[in-house]
Write a structure and sequence with these properties.
This protein is mostly beta strands. The chain is built from three helices and 26 strands. Strand 20 and strand 21 form a beta hairpin. This is Pirin family protein.
């Protein structure tokens, strides 16, 4: 798992809890079902079975892989529309090429994040690059959908490329956990991602037997998704493992601990930590459109069919299929 690494002993340390801090309890732990997306790449539906109000302002999240592809196996998506939210694609291992109808595009690779504001409407493609399809290899990432409030639903489409070496790096108090801060704030430190909806997004690696306790904005919800490994969450130490999502209640801090023994192929506990300020507006979703009402969904579909989301560029990126 070659997402950005660092010597935790040289990094800023997250401050210990004060006597007045309250720890967030665990409200639920759910296991994401496995499925397939796009042209057939495997995903874990991380938010399945979770109450929508507990997820707000998040709408959807897939863990893509982790999978070791044979030559010819990698799959992506074809061109498709989005409106009304932001997509965040974080590549932990492997490579993903992308392009959109407003001039954005590039290659997302080990530890990088592609942050796309769909806003008023955009066409988009994500697919493994040709060389990965031909050779095979590791593929592992996360795609998160962040809702936009009504006032920003028709914001101009925008794109941010966040390279892995630009994320904020922090260490737990004992040096046993590395925190990669992609967006938002933790303990006075900020990640590089600029967001319409106030959120915090971080990827933590917690060594066997270590514990991560970090302050969390009281106005935000708090979620922890296990990418790999085994551990425990919350003040009572609820067991949690790969493919599971913990939803925390109210409080000042969240705690995640790694089991003392991990599988040999999973040397540490890898956790995605996320939370945001709830929007508390009606959410109506139809596929890649996330709006506030049914009439807005109909309008989005009509606008897409009328070509108002832009056009697929000349010589556009297309899914690569190996020669048979």
């Amino acid at each position: 798992m070659p997402a950005i690494t660092a010597d935790t002993l040289t990094l800023p340390r997250i401050a210990a809890a004060s006597p007045s801090d309250s720890e967030r309890p665990v409200r639920s732990i759910t296991t994401g079902p496995r499925g397939y997306e796009g042209e057939g790449f495997p995903v874990v539906r991380a938010f399945a079975g979770v109450i929508k109000a507990d997820l707000d302002p998040f709408v959807h999240m897939d863990q893509m892989g982790e999978i070791e592809y044979e030559p010819g196996e990698p799959r992506g998506t074809d061109w498709h529309p989005h409106r009304g939210f932001e997509t965040v694609t974080y590549m932990i291992d492997g490579r993903f090429a992308h392009q959109d109808s407003h001039g954005g595009g590039g290659l997302i690779t080990d530890g990088a994040t592609q942050w796309m504001t769909a806003g008023s409407g955009i066409l988009h493609i994500e697919t493994p690059p040709a060389e990965l399809v031909e050779s095979g290899g590791i593929f592992h990432g996360v795609q998160l959908w962040v809702n936009l409030p009504r006032k920003d639903k028709f914001a101009a489409p925008n794109y941010q490329s966040i390279e892995g070496d630009s994320v904020g790096l922090l260490s737990s108090g004992d040096g046993g956990a590395l925190v990669r801060l992609i967006a938002g704030e933790v303990d006075g430190h900020r990640g590089p991602g600029a967001t319409h909806t106030p959120i915090t997004l971080a990827h933590a690696t917690i060594e066997p037997g270590a514990q991560l306790s970090l302050p969390w904005n009281r106005d935000f919800n708090a979620l922890a998704y296990v990418l790999s490994g085994r551990g425990a969450v919350g003040p009572v130490g609820h067991p949690i493992h790969e493919g599971q999502l913990a939803v925390f209640g109210q409080g000042d801090r969240i705690t995640v601990a790694a089991d003392p023994t991990q599988e040999s192929r999973r040397p540490a506990l890898e956790v995605l930590l996320l939370g945001g300020k709830p929007i508390r507006e009606p959410v109506m979703q139809y596929g890649p459109f996330v709006m506030n009402s049914k009439s807005e969904l109909i309008e989005a579909l009509e606008d897409y069919n009328a070509g108002k989301f832009g056009n697929v560029p000349p010589n556009a990126l297309m899914p690569h299929r190996p020669r048979g």
